[in-house]
Amino acid sequence: MYWNQAYECMERSQLEALQSERLINTIQRVYYNVPYYRNEMQKAGLTPEDIKGIEDLSKLPFTTKQDLRDNYPYGLFAVPLSEIVRIHASSGTTGKPTVVGYTRQDIATWSELMARTLTCGGTRKDSVIQIAYGYGLFTGGLGAHYGAERIGASVIPISGGNTKRQIMLMEDFGTTVLACTPSYALYIAETIKEMGIPRENFKLKYGIFGAEPWTEAMRREIEEKLQISAIDIYGLSEVIGPGVASECQCKQGLHIFEDHFIPEIINPDTGEVLPAGSKGELVFTTITKEGLPVIRYRTRDITSLTYEPCPCGRTHVRMHKVLGRTDDMLIIRGVNVFPSQIESLLIEIGETEPHYMLVVDRVDNLDNLEVWVEVSDRLFSDEVRRLEDLNRKITHEIQSTLGLTARVKLVEPKTIARSEGKAKRVIDKRNLQGG
Amino acid sequence: MLVKQISVFIENKKGKLAEITRVLKDHNVDISAISIADTENFGILRMIANNQENAVKCIREAGYPVNTTEVIAIEVPDHPGGLHKVLEILEQRGISIEYLYSFVRAKSEKALILFKVENPETAVETLEGSGVKVLSDREVYEL
């Protein structure tokens, strides 16, 4: 079952011709409408005429999250603000978020891509879909919402949290499709079990899970516990949000919607484009976006691509489940966390040494963040109360800055390994790449 | 009349205390009194030792956060109500105790009490004025 068979199953030569045409058009637009891109292209000695098709893509300079941040908030928008109908944002590393804007046409494109994604996951016109991704600045909730409405499914826009109520509505409203983060899906499964509600009370059949990395083992567990078929979806707000790539029911990699985004795999150190099948950093160029087109945007996600035909009949390239990151970003309960955020918060509190370690683990299917902070002579107080106050203060600051509850642990000096080069700030015990 | 107490931050982990006592043994430090305040994650080891500067130095070299705090050492009669009498005096003067630990000496009728307050000078004055024996640091170290 496809949402848009003509595009999703387009023959490759035809698809490439379409990509070339759309790329040329995009480069024209960014060159003339976005001073940043014009400058970057001029620095590389390029004019729009140098880009004659997808074979010229690798001539273009990369764009990074830092470039978006440097042009905060609207600097990379390619249309006047009056044409923007929606603004989303994701958490930034230093307080300022990454801002993305959509024109009316972008919202239509996004709805189309999410309609494809949700269709891949089993959503139909007669489905009842419960959207438990967060609604708000985060793209997850509204992205899925518009896609589900496009299909014509019955949408329950419940957003995240309040698990018992989620389960009550799931039972009473006859939800057939659940869209949320995989860890939340497992949490829901556990809670259903605790509440002792029999499976036959639910009509749930499909799960559409993303916004955080998860393993095949976790998929098996979710599918078994909820007795559903679960797919992995991929996206990032800088590119469009969810709806960049989606697994089909074959569950052998995620189809990237190539009629809208051109993927490349590069060597993260040299920037060299790697052949299909190689593991490297995933880079995207958007070729239909109007509000915020991005050219060779470095996702920092590590994966590989395969152009082998998929049994589902879709011709679009498949990316492997994300295998890691080239930076130290962590995704904890769907929230993007950079160790540097914790660092600047500790420096601001000023009562601790900037030696810290983030220890992430998954306990009872929920991510747990522990922050270890070294105690020094300088901040060591003889009174338990003062140390506990400090502990509470750090916990509170993390909660209000990142929206995450962390367990802060004061440790002895030198407990946290010093390294010669880049300090190791993270111990991730979640084993998200394992089977 | 205040006594310097050594405080050490240690994680609440197996074998940690023995690591400290080993360091002190190796440096020939004699502990007169010792107490531990513990929480789920960490503990604060508090002690009175002879050769206090040397003790601080060797603990610091071993990599533990350490500092010194002034506490009051008093003698109370080792019988029912002995401690209560002293605490009553402090309570009447509105002096609150941050923490306290005791130490009973062999072959003595008196117990040694160590405690920390906000204003140690006032506390010492009050106690001495009420006839409580406050020990000097030398007296404590020589125990």
What are the SSEs and their pairings?
The complex is a heterodimer of chains A (435) and B (143).
Chain A: H1 5-8, H2 12-33, H3 35-43, H4 65-70, E1 84-90, E2 98-103, H5 104-120, E3 128-131, H6 139-151, E4 154-156, H7 163-172, E5 177-180, H8 182-195, E6 206-209, H9 216-226, E7 229-236, E8 241-247, E9 254-256, E10 261-266, E11 280-286, E12 297-303, E13 305-306, E14 318-319, E15 324-325, E16 330-332, E17 335-337, H10 339-349, E18 356-363, E19 366-374, H11 384-402, E20 406-411, E21 426-428
Parallel strand pairs in A: 3-4, 3-5, 5-6, 6-7, 18-21, 19-20
Antiparallel strand pairs in A: 1-2, 7-8, 8-9, 9-14, 10-11, 11-12, 12-15, 13-14, 16-17, 18-19
Helix pairs in contact in A: 2-3, 5-6, 7-8, 8-9, 10-11
Chain B: E1 3-11, H1 16-26, E2 31-38, E3 42-49, H2 52-61, E4 66-77, H3 82-92, E5 97-104, E6 110-117, H4 120-129, E7 133-134, H5 137-141
Antiparallel strand pairs in B: 1-3, 1-4, 2-3, 4-6, 4-7, 5-6
